[in-house]
Structure formats: C-alpha cells, structure tokens
Amino acid sequence: MTAPQMICHLTDSFRSIMGERPSSSPAPSVPRWRQRLIKFVALQLPLPWPHGVKTRPDVDQERGGTPPSDFSADVAELIRVCERFATAPGRRAPHYLFGTLTDEEWARWGYKHVDHHLRQFGA
User: Fold this and answer.
1) 3-state helix/strand/coil string of 46-69
2) Angle at the Cα of 23 from the Cα atoms of 21 and 25, rounded to 5 degrees
3) pLDDT by residue (tens digit) across 17-31?
4) CA 70 to centroid of chain Cα atoms
5) If you compute the radius of gyration of the chain from its CA atoms, what whole number of angstroms results?
6) What is the DSSP letter of 27?
7) Residue among 95, 19, 92 nearest 56 (CA)
8) Measured distance CA(89)–CA(42) in Å, rounded
9) Mind listing the pLDDT tens digit for each residue in 48-82?
10) 1, 16, 58, 110: which is deepest, by most CB within 10 A?
11) Are the C-beta atoms of 105 and 9 separated by less than 8 Å?
12) What is the number of other CB atoms lying within 10 angstroms of the CB of residue 17?
C-alpha cells in the first residue's frame, strides 16, 4: 500500500462505517465468542495491529476502493471525514469483524486504524 492509497483506504473505511459507502464484502463467519475475543485484543490491549492482514475489497485501493487522485485533496477529504466521524457519534454500521460497537469502541477503532497505517510510513 502506498501513502496515497492509505489515505483513500482510511477515507473509504470511515465512510463505510458511517453508511456513506456501501460495503459489498460479507462478514466472515466467526463464532460470537471469537468475535468478542478478537474485538477485545484489537481494541483494548495496548498492542499495535499486525501488518499483512488482508483488507476487504471495497476498501482496498487495488480492487474496489477509491483510487488516489490529488494527494493534498485526498488528505483534506480524509480530515473532513475523520472530523465528521468523531463529532457525529451514533448509529453506525456493524464492523465487519467486530460486530456492533459502542461510540467509545468506534473512537478507539478509528484511532487504532489510523495509527496502524501511519506506522507503516514511520509516522
């Protein structure tokens, strides 16, 4: 993933969660107990997310995600979408792997997701 692709990936991910971008990827069939365990590890433990995990096609810029265009415009759009996500808590689509999340869990997910990708580029 390139830096421009990462910016678009994050924007697509936030839009998908807010219902502004359709998700065509089916959720994996994971037992409820395992879903809760994965959610706990991913959102509550102070561990960085692993790299190399495949993303859903609808937020993968090489498959079905929004392709990068002008980098500064894409960054500005990501900032706008992040601000909307942070200031308009409420009903969100369930996470494709974690299921239904509280506003606090969504905030943690947003932070961890952005942090995960910024670490790829040494930020």
Assistant:
1) CCCCCCCCCCCHHHCCCCCCCCCC
2) 160
3) 888 887 766 666 778
4) 21
5) 14
6) P
7) 95
8) 20
9) 898 888 888 888 888 888 999 999 999 999 999 99
10) 16
11) no
12) 23
